[in-house]
Amino acid sequence: MKFQDYNLNNQIKRALDEMGIHTPTEIQLRSIPKLLNEQRTHVLAQAKTGTGKTLAFSIPVANQLNPKHKTVQAVILVPTRELCKQVYGVIAQLTKYRKLKAVEVYGGVSIDQQKRKIRDGAQIVIATPGRLMDLYRRRAISFDDVRFVVLDEADRMLDMGFLPDIKYILFEAMEGVSPRLLLFSATMLKQITKVAHQFSNDEKLVEINVSKDDLTVASCKQYYYKVNSSKHKYSTFVSILKRDRPKSSIIFVNTRRWGDKLRKQLSQEKNLYLKFSTLSGNKTQNQRETVLKNFRQKKINCLIATNVAARGLDIPHVTHIFNFDLPREGPEIYVHRIGRTSRMENEGKAISFVVSDQMDMLRKIEDLTKRPIERLYLTDKTNTAPNSKPTPSRTNNAKPKQSKQVYYKSKSASFQHNKSNNPSVIHATD
Known about the structure:
- By secondary structure, the protein is an alpha/beta fold.
- It is 36% helix and 19% strand.
- It is built from 15 helices and 17 strands.
């Protein structure tokens, strides 16, 4: 089924055609008809990152709003400024012929300008919870005419501590308004489902799950290296960078301080020929936007980021995700991280570095994703037998038998070294 076959406004169809979007993804196929045809239905949707969630809610919302009413009719809550800008960009393209006015509101910039845009007749407000609360307390926004409230990446908003703000907005600020709730999330936490059921009350709540048994993107190949120290981790990582030379990768670290240190060390490495930059919470908005622009334009190969800084990034050309540090918060964060690659069914690779006391976390990740993560080896004089395969984390983790020949096999190349002393030689079999 094509979007042209849907019961959509012709202006929406025209915009989709210009955007080059013709066929719905799975989450769009399962959610849009319900939102178009079932007027008092709320939706609780779980879908993988990068599967088209933004259009899954934007299309039905834009289709059903009234361009003649110059009041706020839809509120879309997102966890970060970057995601706010991305959602705004999609909606701006989608509604340009529909003549609906959207505004993005987030912290770090002048609130007065945002107040003016809302007052001038914005019908769709895309906001971070904190800034929306600020606007509401200043009486700069009214929810009286809101027909839709969307929570995008709801799980991440909970991770960031926005649950009290979300509850206040839904149950107090919008009391008596009764908008439809559209809740989208990559992982479904109990607190999220509880909020959805409380808000829907006695009305119909449709739960859509296109990823319960496969939270990770199917085309993302997942591997790990077991390391015994920070120094060993770093040297292993450098060897992999020299071998793979990723054109576009995101390197996840757990702290801003370590991210800055890692960038400095990597930039001083010889024969890497890669450009590095960091994305962390201490950068100004202009600095962040410059870094992201350079990354999108491929002026930067490797973006070193913390969880919060990289949340919501939608950059299709990312080929590698490196978990230099495994996430401390839990396996759900791992899912969000590797969702930065394999966007819209493109193939990607996720590589993690694991110390001995993190094996339990690795197994929890496997339990959540329902996929084994294969172990690879970095060797010096010896390596695994040419025909052996890497082992999942919960099976035998001992190195395979030694061999005088060392191979690296992948979809794109096959390398063979005889009695190599090169520390960048790696054995893997996809």
